[in-house]
Specification:
Elements lengths: L11 E12 L3 E14 L2 H9 L19
Antiparallel strand pairs: 1-2
Length: 70
């Protein structure tokens, strides 16, 4: 299966339907039948998940304070 590099989206939420198949080379392989892009995963959310921080405000790249809304 080839990936169209123009349409590849890093940090996207995907839904893949397929099955595990036993392989002689690698033990198991995944044969994907369909892939559906559900939406983008913002960098802040991904960083929040990786670091284990419970509040997204701690991971914002450009944090906003009460006096600096715009």
């Amino acid at each position: 299966m080839e990936i169209n590099k123009n349409a590849f989206n890093v940090g996207a939420a995907l839904k893949a339907v397929g099955s595990f198949v036993r392989s002689k080379r690698n033990g198991y392989e995944i044969q994907i039948q369909t892939i559906e892009v559900l939406g983008n995963c913002p960098f802040d959310r991904m960083l929040m998940y990786v670091t284990g921080v419970s509040n997204i405000r701690d991971t914002l790249l450009f944090p906003r304070t009460v006096g600096n809304l715009f």
